[in-house]
Amino acid sequence: YKLVLVAKEGHLVNSLYDLQKDPFEMQNLYHDPKHQELVRELTALRGEIAARTGDNFPQPTKPAPLEPPA
Questions:
Q1: Torsion sign, CA atoms 52, 57, 63, 64
Q2: How far apart are the C-alpha atoms of 51 and 53, rounded to whole Å?
Q3: What is the per-residue pLDDT across 8-65, written as a single tens digit (0 to 9) for each?
Q4: Quick one: DSSP state of residue 14?
Q5: In angstroms, rounded to a whole number, what is the distance separating the alpha carbons of residues 43 and 40?
Q6: What b-and-e string marks burial along 36-45, b requiring 16 or more CB atoms within 10 Å of the CB?
Q7: Distance of CA 20 to CAs 16, 38, 39, Å?
Q8: C-alpha closest to that of 39 among 58, 69, 57, 12
């Protein structure tokens, strides 16, 4: 899996891809209810690594939308 967090316009634009089934990253699974536990785990891991390494990843100024943009 590949989790992508991009700070854009004051919030995070998020993506999750299953690289084995979708190597060209065509299907964003981030909002799929079946993948929410994995999203939480990978997001927490990213936060732990950032804290350990001093990564200054931008913090969102407003929450990311729950649903992808139409």
A1: negative
A2: 6
A3: 776 778 899 999 999 999 999 999 999 999 998 998 888 889 889 998 776 655 555 5
A4: E
A5: 5
A6: eebbeebeee
A7: 12, 15, 17
A8: 12
> How many CB atoms are closer than 10 A to CB 29?
19
Token digits for 66? 């729950």
Q: Please identify which residue in the block is written with the tokens 């998020």.
A: 14
Q: How many residues does the chain have?
A: 70
Nearest to 46 by CA among 57, 62, 60: 57
pLDDT of residue 59: 61
* Cα gap 5→61, rounded to integer Å: 14
Structure tokens at 59: 């913090």
